[in-house]
Amino acid sequence: MAEVLGVAASVAGLISLADIVVGRGYKFLRTIKNAEKTVKSLVHEVNVLSGVLHSLSNTIQLLEEDEDSANFDPTTQVHYIEACYQTLLQIQCSFEAALPSTPLSIGQKIRWPLRESKTKELLADMQRHKSTMVLAMSATEMSALLKVLTRQDAIQDGIRGLKSHLESDREERKHIIIGPSSRSCVCMSIEA
């Protein structure tokens, strides 16, 4: 359970960082009207990843509440979370380097600090991280669905067992109730 909480906390940290990156990205795009298309795509991809991370967080919270989540192995998930964190951190640092902390003087321009090839590399990394997180969310949801279906089968088996027990109990009661009256009817017909 502690491992699941560790993964949930890591995803929450990613969400916070992604939200910061998206905010800084939009600020950069507002400031630079003619920003490169790759920078716009990068901000969009981080925004989409943020939504995926929010969904993944909700799915992980379901795992937290599940007492059968002991077989959940978080070791591989943490590796992917760390890689995503590093990429988001690079993007955040790029926006911080591009956006001045003090107002610009006349004639100064804000520039994107990375080459287009590096920006495209970060964009590809973000798309890969997004795909990985979507896959993790789907696998987790599928695992939860399989658990629900297994529990449903167990419940149905229990209901069938109760039903057969009730039917056999009903038959026994019929024999007990019908038994003496049918004997008296048989006895009366023999005497007549």
UniProtKB/TrEMBL annotation:
Coiled-coil regions listed: none
Gene3D superfamilies on file: Prion-inhibition and propagation, HeLo domain
Example of a GO biological process term: regulation of DNA-templated transcription
InterPro entries: CON7-like (IPR039327), HeLo_sf (IPR038305), PigL_N (IPR031348)
Domain Azaphilone pigments biosynthesis cluster protein L N-terminal intervals: 2-168
Alphabetized PANTHER family for the sequence: C2H2 FINGER DOMAIN TRANSCRIPTION FACTOR (EUROFUNG)-RELATED (PTHR36167:SF3)
Protein name: Azaphilone pigments biosynthesis cluster protein L N-terminal domain-containing protein
